[in-house]
Design goal:
Layout: H1 20-56, H2 63-102, H3 114-122, H4 138-162
Length: 168
């Protein structure tokens, strides 16, 4: 039988203070990860919503299956907006933290916060007739769009029970 060594007492633990550069790099990486997660949720949600709406609006689908698909669609819409909001919150928290760390840097090295936002908003997306879409806030646009799936599912559920002939 091999004996396990006892853990070292706490006073033997050396805590290293990370440099500002290391903190900045970790925050920037985490912010990028949250930004990626922020937009993965709506993409996956749209896939789920497409499947559920296909069932809910399908021809000859029994009312109980239609009802389950509608209720699941409402739940998916709610969960999608909730996780979108939480990922946005985390991403904004890190963006603000990075902005605060950059305050002491020369102006050209401040790449987070209002300065970046103004520069982005002043840049044309070069999307021709769709340029105006860049003026819409992505989060609100997606949150409203995902919520509309829930509303459409509730309307479909109502029609299935009150006016079933409209879905036949």
């Amino acid at each position: 039988m091999v004996e396990q060594a006892a853990p070292a007492p706490d006073d033997d633990v050396v805590t290293l203070a990370p440099s500002t550069d290391a903190i900045y790099a970790a925050l920037a990486a985490r912010r990028t990860q949250f930004d990626n997660l922020l937009w993965q949720a709506p993409a996956l949600s749209l896939t789920a919503q497409a499947f559920l709406m296909t069932v809910a609006l399908g021809n000859g689908v029994p009312i109980y299956q239609r009802s389950i698909a509608c209720l699941l669609s409402v739940v998916v819409a709610f969960l999608s907006v909730q996780i979108l909001t939480r990922h946005r919150q985390a991403e904004i928290t890190d963006a603000h933290w990075l902005r605060d760390l950059e305050k002491g840097a020369p102006h050209q090295y401040r790449v987070h916060g209002p300065g970046w936002q103004k520069r982005r908003n002043a840049t044309s997306p070069e999307a021709g007739p769709f340029n105006w879409l860049a003026n819409l806030t992505g989060y609100y646009t997606w949150a409203i769009g995902l919520s509309l799936f829930g509303v459409a599912s509730l309307v479909t559920l109502f029609l299935a029970w009150v006016y079933p002939s409209t879905l036949a």
